[in-house]
Design a protein that fits this description.
Rossmann fold; seven-stranded parallel β-sheet; five-stranded mixed β-sheet; 16 strands; globular; binds NADP nicotinamide-adenine-dinucleotide phosphate
Length: 368
Amino acid sequence: MSNKQVVVYGASGYTGRLVCEFLREYQVPFIAAGRNQQRIEEALAKVPGIETADYEIVQVEHSVEALTELFTGRQVVCNTVGPFDYFGDAVVQAAANANCHYMDTTGEQAFMLEMREKYADVYKANGKILAPSTAYMYTPLDIAAHIVLEDNSIDAIEAGCIAAGIPTYGSTQTIFSMFQAEHLYLENNQLVPWEKGRGWEVCAPGKMMTQLAHPWGGGSLPLWLQHDHRVHSVRQLTAFTNRPMFEQLIELQQHYEQNLKPLPKDEQEKALKEIAEGMQPGMPPRENKLVHRSTDFVHGIGSGTRRTCAIHTTVPYQLTGLVQAALAVYLLDEQPRKAGFVSSCQAAGHEYMLGSIKKFLPVQVDIY
Ligand SMILES: NC(=O)c1ccc[n+]([C@@H]2O[C@H](COP(=O)([O-])OP(=O)(O)OC[C@H]3O[C@@H](n4cnc5c(N)ncnc54)[C@H](OP(=O)(O)O)[C@@H]3O)[C@@H](O)[C@H]2O)c1
């Protein structure tokens, strides 16, 4: 059997490349896979120190059969091919067929709900994880939620992700693809939809001005905590510090609701792809630690209690590559704490995930 037990699918993309970068930091051999050999070669050539990594490039067709063949005999699949609503099912199915652990960078609730419904039992029976949203917008909030819930009087969560940066081509496509679905939060143990086409002002710890936030698909916390007996209500909002971008996003969601929603689904998809192309046609430059700083916070609410955890860090896309690689490293060596549809913290523990981030990036964790 090959010594390469980790497959990065989507290695030619902005995020896939960063997963490869951090696997190299961990000195883990990997397969860099995708639909186009040349694009993967070009992307990996940009990874610092790639000449010291133990990897091979595999071009693979995007089909359940071809992916199952590639994944067979491996242990972990890191999937960064999005929008996941469009491309994710085949990869989740192939990883289940090959009896691998699976993680991705999705934020699309509709996709997560569908994958949970279709495949969670298979993964659970195999002792494997189906871990969506192992990524910046979700993993720090997952860590913060675990910390807040150490207080047993907390039973409701309000979470905010405040990022600085420029969404990539794939992320922009994904944001707009999410307009087609409901964005849900958990209210008294029921998933209920957020109002469409509006934003909310949020006060983030350590910020002077309020931030214009949006459900951004609804987030993963309401789903990960949906069946957690400690919690009955979970809301998650996202803001980029680029306020005009968020004002435009909300206007475009209103445009979708009024003008595009009545169209047939394929015409909606085409129109949304064109809007996304117009906003982000290419790959943004590498992030800068002094510029692309982020704050993720969770307020825990009880009858007479409040507990907040805020995590301040930087370079969100690099953090995504980092947490994917860190979870893969854990899974190569340990059984997950919980199998099936889980978050990275439910699988590996929030202490491990936080410790992994601290190895590579400046982090301040405030708990009060
Ligand atoms: N929530 C977070 O914090 C977070 C962070 C990072 C990324 N993400 C998500 O991760 C996804 C990828 O983002 P990205 O920034 O890496 O985007 P990207 O740079 O556009 O990369 C997309 C990748 O998907 C591949 N791909 C696209 N269509 C495909 C198809 N039909 N068949 C096979 N492969 C296909 C691309 O291959 P080619 O090069 O051959 O086109 C590329 O490797 C997005 O959904 C994004 O929202 C989320």
